[in-house]
Amino acid sequence: MITNVFNGFCMALADSVPGVSGGTIAFILGFYEDLLESVNNITTGNKEKFKESIIFLAKLFIGWVVGMTLSVLFLSSMFEKNIYFLSSLFMGLTAASIIYIIKSEFKVIDKKNKYLLFSILGIVIVVLISALRGKLMPSGNMELSNLNFLEYIYIFFTGMIAISAMVLPGISGSTLLLIFGVYIPVINALNQLLRFDFSVFTGLLIFSLGILCGFVVSVRIIRHAFRKHRSKMIYLIVGLTIGSLFAIVQGPTTLVVPKAAVSLSTFSPFGFIVGVALLLLLELFKNYSIKKISENDTDV
Q1: CA 218/CA 171 separation, integer angstroms
Q2: Distance of CA 266 to CAs 179, 249, 259, 262, 294, Å?
Q3: How far apart are CA 297 and CA 300, in angstroms?
Q4: DSSP three-state, residue 20
Q5: Is there a contact between 36 and 223 (Cβ–Cβ < 8 Å)?
Q6: How far apart are CA 260 and CA 164, in angstroms?
Q7: CA–CA separation, 220 vs 150, rounded Å?
Q8: pLDDT category of residue 181 using cuts at 50, 70 and 90
């Protein structure tokens, strides 16, 4: 019970910040395959495993809600004052996750030079979306309490795309929201809602519907892709994650009052180290959990 709630909590912390996806955290903590199978069991109506899957996902969800709530309350107040420190921390998380994914999958994936094209594709996708953000969202920064019809459509589809990334190890959904210029407005809107300001409710509802639609569709696609083309998917994930570093560097430009992108003068080495350390702590927790489970099985 406690382990699954903690896993959900860690996923929420990852999903709430640009850099590492909740899927990556699930991958690192060793329950990613269980997550995909549980969601698939529910959406396909697998009666034999339906109850078991519901219980597993419910525990994750409890931890996720707690983690997301705490993150929103903390992050919304931190962004304006500490954007460069946080951006550097996200970069540390992302860089460490790239190394982890390569290390954990190197022995099992097919090592073919032509698969590098998938990594290059991943990098190009993220960089292009980042570069075209202003054209994709002409109105620039938005407020969810004051949206027009086109902006409602826009946030619906960004919600669909973002949740697909949150499920997929590699680029985080928050990074995609950052790329599309929606991340900080959503964080601020969630903070407003938690303080009982319901002017943002409609905007968040449309965004949530996009997330729900994207979640159901993406899990089936990603599950199938991992089963049939695991090596290609790993190469693509590495490329997407590398590309997300560029998006994080551009993050300060998406603030309500835009700031300059991260540069050598504003980069925080300490923040970067903290980001790396956080990922290392997660790996240590995973190894500790595996050891405990092994010891319990031996005792039985």
Answers
A1: 14
A2: 20, 10, 11, 6, 46
A3: 5
A4: strand
A5: yes
A6: 29
A7: 29
A8: confident
Q: Which two tokens stand for residue 58?
A: 């419910």
Highest mean pLDDT among 1-15, 68-82, 143-157, 176-190: 143-157
Over residues 230-249, the pLDDT tens digits come to 888 888 888 888 888 887 88
Q: Using DSSP, state whether 171 is helix, strand or coil.
A: strand
| Residue type at 241 in one-letter notation | T
The Cα 62–Cα 254 span in angstroms is 31
The candidate with the shortest Cα–Cα distance to 94, out of 20, 178, 14, is 20
Calpha distance 31→23 (Å, rounded): 9
Q: Outline where 106-200 has alpha helix (H).
A: 116-131, 133-136, 149-167, 173-179, 183-194
The pTM for the full model equals 0.71
Distance, CA of 136 to CA of 129 (rounded, Å)? 8
Q: What is the pLDDT of residue 207?
A: 92
Q: Tokens 């990922």 map to which residue?
A: 279
Contacts of 245 (CB under 8 A, 6+ apart): 91, 94, 95
